[in-house]
Design brief:
The chain is built from ten helices and eight strands. The protein is an alpha/beta fold. The strands form two sheets. A five-stranded antiparallel β-sheet has the order 2-1-5-4-3, with helices on both faces. A three-stranded parallel β-sheet has the order 7-6-8, with helices on both faces. Helix 7 links the parallel strand 6 and strand 7.
């Protein structure tokens, strides 16, 4: 049925959809009962240009622009906007209009309005759900990347001490303890460290190389930049301690007694004091109590104790643990 014929029917008022007819100047000349029931308007309020008052103020300019463009082009149009209901609430509607002609001239427009509030609400809910899904996916991906970075960083941090232990054990075995059970123990330590290093390398390859070390570079010695003052009476033990510490990258200095240790503390400012509890002249506890004023903010006492003969691996691990808070 052609649109122009619809208005000749006697039953247009009984249709549940809102129908209207407008003149070429966009003034309303007819609206059916469904339109009046929805808006709560009376005919004298709607006919003419009064019907535009049902359009939401925020949508009015867009509605007018759409209608004017269509009227100028004599083209059909479609627009969604909010229409005021009889109770004052605004509801989303879909409006469609089509030009009608009379003897070849524009006679106005025929149109309909269909409430789509539920559809708009469903669309908004769908968009909200999609946005939550996008955010969840992004958060999941970021968490996965963070896990990979952490995994790679932990492996990188494990690499340096493992290599230092292996290298230190090898040098000690070759230079200091070529024979006996001590050499066998160092060989076992070196073998274990090399095995662990291979495992770490395989895990790093599995991790894809993502992330970077949290602290020092992979090739940095375990105690790089750490100053250690050794107070030890026995020359061989003193030399052994110096070699172990220096192989791990520490700046090590050794003195035989507390009389020489006090000036070294004052002038050199070591990070770690490694002292025999029974050094000549005064024991190590007296040495701590007599340390220079710059170091007296620290409570007297030892932070760690090692049994003699000192195990090289235990020594390096203890010194590394002591300086770790300062490095962080």
């Amino acid at each position: 049925m052609a649109p122009a014929t619809l208005w000749d029917m006697s039953w247009e008022d009984d249709l549940p959809v809102m129908l209207w007819r407008a003149r070429p100047d966009m003034s309303c000349e007819f609206a059916n009962r469904a339109w009046f029931a929805f808006t709560g308007y009376r005919a004298q309020d709607a006919y003419g240009h009064g019907w535009s008052r049902v359009v939401h103020p925020e949508d009015l300019a867009r509605w007018l622009d759409t209608c004017l463009r269509a009227y100028d082009a004599r083209a059909p149009y479609e627009i969604e906007y909010r229409m005021r209901r009889h109770d004052g609430a605004y509801r989303w509607v879909l409006e469609r209009g089509a030009p009608r002609a009379s003897q070849g001239a524009l006679a106005g427009y025929l149109g309909m309005c269909l409430e789509i509030e539920d559809r708009k609400g469903a669309a908004a809910a769908t968009e909200c759900a999609l946005e939550r899904e996008r955010r969840l996916r992004a958060a999941t991906e970021e968490a996965s990347h963070a896990k990979d970075r952490l995994f790679a960083n932990v492996l990188a941090e494990l690499h340096s001490p493992t290599e230092a232990i292996a290298a230190g054990s090898a040098r000690l075995r070759e230079e200091l303890l070529p024979k006996g059970k001590a050499a066998q123990a160092l060989e076992a330590i070196e073998l274990a460290a090399r095995t662990q290093a291979r495992v770490i390398a395989n895990l790093q390859e599995f991790a894809g190389g993502c992330g970077a070390p949290l602290g020092r570079p992979l090739d940095a010695p375990l105690l790089a930049g750490v100053r250690v003052l050794v107070v030890e009476e026995d020359p061989q033990a003193r030399e052994l301690l110096l070699k172990v510490l220096r192989m791990a990258g520490a700046e090590a200095c050794a003195v035989p007694d507390s009389a020489q240790a006090l000036p070294a503390l004052e002038d050199w400012h070591p990070d770690v004091l490694l002292s025999d509890a029974g050094v000549p002249g005064e024991d190590g506890y007296v040495l701590l109590r007599a340390r220079p004023a710059a170091h007296r903010g620290i409570a007297p006492g030892y932070d760690a104790q090692l049994a003699k003969p000192v195990e090289p691996v235990a020594l390096l691990a203890t010194v590394a643990r002591l300086v770790q808070p300062a490095a962080a």
